[in-house]
């Protein structure tokens, strides 16, 4: 009951100097609002990055060609392309936990359809490509293994290609010409938008990899092998098993490939967002410290103004701990009021930013709780010294104070 009585006294004392109370809590309001807004922006950016990485597929491991050296000239990554469809099939058959594999070749070509033309990405893939990339069809069907075996001239196109070449007709069943060879359109991919790397994922034509290698590009080797793991926890093991398998097939020669996990890409991308969130949050947290200093300053002034009141309370039986508790509650009440108002301002600011800009925000209950607890802790930390000073006043000297 003593705490509730002290709280009533604290609220009465704060109402006595309402303008000063509002100005004091302003520092806490700004600090808490800044922290919540900063964390919301950081979480939104992290969520956006994770979403774009997820659009590349779930549990994906990629095998890329390595580098080559010829006559003292060292080529970059991708210059030593020795990956084959047979190796892709071997990975699917021999590495436990692999649920799908797609042999991939890539190139850019000018394509034509319905009297229009467009330069786009041509990708030769396996039928499992849509499973690996977690990509669905908006209309039509995917080509089959039979189409791969016969190097059939069939294709599935992205929404951008469909809009550019067939704006007024249904593309399904229409003919798309690649290097003047007719490919029948079997399906249209669902729109995925811009990838994490900034490219338009819908600007693509997908054909059987055998058709791409034999009919379009004249290649012997693959551009990449895409692997889908059954679960995320199996990815490190599958990555190592794939590396060992491919190295074994090369009879101990210098590795001419590299195996990358989507987890590595996700960790690298989100680590930047997390770092920026902590940095912005730390800068915003300085506002809380400044607000706490303001509370300590006002509480010291309050102790000085109420010295005679403190003397009277001690004279009628109040102990030092009672005075300490009284002023500590006042400081915590100040910071808590500022924290509650700051939470509302911070959440509101986050929604305004999201509504008026393309910057996503994501306000988490954890951030709100942490900001409020931190604001209360600031009140305890910066309110303790003035409260202790008030508790240590000599009652006789306090009663003499004018």
What does this structure look like?
The chain has 402 residues and is of the alpha+beta class. The chain folds into two domains: 2-52 and 268-400, no CATH class; 81-255, no CATH class. Helix content is 56%, strand content 18%. A six-stranded mixed β-barrel has the order 4-5-10-7-9-8. Strands 2-3 form a two-stranded antiparallel sheet. Helix 2 (18-54) crosses helix 11 and helix 9 crosses helix 11 (320-356). Residues 68-75 have low confidence and may be disordered.
In short:
The protein is α+β, with helices and mostly antiparallel strands and 402 residues long. It contains 13 helices and twelve strands. The two termini are 32 Å apart.
Shape: elongated
Which structural category do the helix and sheet elements fall into? alpha+beta
Major sheet: size, sense and barrel closure? 6 strands, mixed, barrel
Count of individual beta strands: 12
Let me know the average pLDDT.
81
Strand order of the largest sheet: 4-5-10-7-9-8
End-to-end distance, in Å? 32 Å
Note poorly predicted spans: 68-75
**Domain module tally:** 2
| Global Rg | 33 Å
Provide key terms for this protein.
12 strands, six-stranded mixed beta barrel, two-stranded antiparallel ribbon, alpha+beta, 402 residues
SSE inventory with pairings:
Elements: H1 2-16, H2 18-54, E1 60-65, E2 69-70, E3 73-74, H3 85-94, E4 98-113, E5 116-125, H4 129-132, E6 137-140, H5 145-149, E7 154-157, H6 159-165, E8 175-178, E9 181-189, E10 204-208, H7 209-217, E11 224-229, H8 235-249, E12 257-261, H9 262-305, H10 307-315, H11 320-356, H12 365-391, H13 395-400
Parallel strand pairs: 5-10, 7-9
Antiparallel strand pairs: 1-11, 1-12, 2-3, 4-5, 4-8, 4-11, 6-9, 7-10, 8-9
Helix pairs in contact: 1-11, 2-9, 2-11, 2-12, 9-11, 9-12, 11-12
